[in-house]
Write a structure and sequence with these properties.
259 residues, alpha/beta, Rossmann fold, seven-stranded mixed β-sheet, 10 helices, 7 strands
Length: 259
């Protein structure tokens, strides 16, 4: 059995060293603009989150959930929010601390599993900002339940996720031959869908393990936890080499309210 939480924590630590796009801290210029009210954040690779989805964050308690990397949390803090950055990767939290120290921001950082927010009291936050990251988490139901618990009413949950159908294709064929070849049934998981050799190679290379999740888990899971989904948009990769972008949007962002 693989300890997925521990493995993916190490994988994202490694991603920081490899300068993955989700690990590059924002510049001081970006923070300066945010302080002046000119700011934006993303839940998915390319589209900016509509400002009316977030509203005025000044004085709000914001939980950036699995959102480390020196990007969204520092921007929201510079915009006036009281930010807690909660992530499974120590190095990703280091990126948030780096920007906070460089630019004089206050950001509380906490390392842990998104399915266990027990260190936070009920109704601790006004906004939860949860960009594309639950593909690295095997079970979503406890995450949605915990999000509902720690939000005060009427709190806002902003989430980005990868569409499940992305995972039916053979990633090797797409990257090597530029072809979309159907290979996997859904729901997909690296643990169960890959061959033993492929999985062993991923683990040896320190690559994060992924899970497709169904729309029932993503959307139905939020509503089952008690949320009302009031906004949704689609987005594409920001990588021109991804062939699937020619045919479909690969990501979804949702805005949900705790009534």
């Amino acid at each position: 059995m693989i300890d997925v939480i521990k493995h993916n924590s190490s994988a994202w630590d490694k991603a920081v060293d490899e300068l993955d796009g989700w690990t590059i801290p924002v510049t001081s210029e970006t923070i300066d603009r945010a302080r002046r009210g000119d700011w934006s954040v993303i839940l998915t690779p390319a589209k900016l989150v509509p400002r009316d989805w977030i509203g005025d964050v000044s004085g709000k308690n914001v939980l950036c959930l699995a959102s480390g990397g020196g990007q969204q949390a520092p921007v929201l803090a510079a915009a006036g929010a009281h930010v807690t950055s909660f992530d499974n990767s120590r190095r990703q939290l280091d990126q948030d601390r780096f920007v906070a120290e460089r630019d004089g921001l206050e950001i509380r950082t906490e390392k842990g599993d998104a399915a266990d927010l027990s260190r936070f009291a009920d109704g601790s936050f006004d906004i939860i900002f949860h960009p594309c990251s639950n593909l690295f988490m095997p079970d979503l139901a406890p995450i949605w339940k915990e999000c509902f618990r720690v939000l005060r009413s009427p709190g806002v949950l902003l989430t980005g996720f990868t569409k499940p159908e992305v995972y039916i294709f053979d990633e090797f064929e797409e990257e090597t031959n530029g072809e979309l070849v159907v290979r996997h049934s859904l729901p997909y998981s690296d643990e169960k869908s890959l061959t033993e050799d492929e999985l062993s190679h991923m683990i040896e290379q320190g690559e994060a393990l992924e899970y497709s999740h169904t729309l029932e888990e993503q959307l139905g899971g939020q509503t089952s936890a008690g949320f009302h989904i009031v906004g949704l948009y689609e987005d594409h990769w920001d990588n021109p080499d991804r062939i699937i972008d020619r045919y479909m949007a690969a990501f979804v962002a949702t805005r949900a309210i705790k009534p």
